[in-house]
């Protein structure tokens, strides 16, 4: 959990990521700042499931770009309230699509991705724009 504590300490906003095929894996934790819930791999679920899940989180697909505009708008609103560059922490279970989300948002491959869980070993800051800096971290499984 040390990665999660570091993210809480160093970031202004947190994106909580889960796989849309297993939305129950999205986890909640105490955080005083803005939080955005994102369900990745939205291209792998049915339209009926999308309608149900869209009420709870932003649906995102790294393959098709679905949800990119909505997430970008949300982040820009948050950035404008800070009046400076925001640091965005991306957290979630291993293999939920955190690094793929960052790559799609940046428009190029900056974070290493793999089908094997645990590809991201350390943490890295990835500049998306002048206003937004992403914090890519390894998957975290919260203690219950």
Structure description:
This protein has 144 residues and is α/β, with parallel strands linked by helices. It is built from four helices and six strands. The protein has helices at residues 2-10, 47-53, 68-82, 98-106, and strands at residues 13-19, 35-40, 58-59, 86-92, 124-127, 132-136. Strands 3-2-1-4-6-5 form a six-stranded mixed sheet, with helices on both faces. A hairpin with a 4-residue loop joins strand 5 (124-127) and strand 6 (132-136). The longest helix is centred in the middle third of the chain and has 15 residues, at 68-82. It is globular and about 40 Å long.
Describe the SSE topology.
Layout: H1 2-10, E1 13-19, E2 35-40, H2 47-53, E3 58-59, H3 68-82, E4 86-92, H4 98-106, E5 124-127, E6 132-136
Parallel strand pairs: 1-2, 1-4, 2-3, 4-6
Antiparallel strand pairs: 5-6
Spell out the key features of this protein:
single chain; 28% helix; six-stranded mixed sheet; globular; alpha/beta; 4 helices; 144 residues
């Amino acid at each position: 959990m040390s990665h999660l504590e570091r993210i809480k300490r160093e970031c202004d906003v947190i994106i909580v990521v889960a796989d849309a095929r297993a939305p129950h894996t999205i986890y909640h934790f105490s955080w005083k700042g803005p939080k955005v819930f994102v369900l990745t791999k939205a291209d792998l679920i049915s339209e009926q499931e999308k309608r149900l899940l869209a009420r709870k989180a932003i649906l995102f697909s790294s393959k098709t770009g679905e949800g990119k505009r909505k997430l970008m708008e949300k982040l820009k609103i948050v950035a404008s309230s800070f009046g400076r560059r925001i640091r965005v922490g991306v957290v979630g279970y291993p293999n939920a699509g955190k690094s793929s989300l960052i790559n799609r948002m940046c428009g190029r491959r900056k974070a290493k991705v793999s089908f094997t869980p645990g590809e991201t070993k350390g943490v890295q800051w990835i500049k998306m724009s002048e206003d937004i800096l992403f914090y890519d971290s390894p998957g975290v499984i919260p203690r219950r």
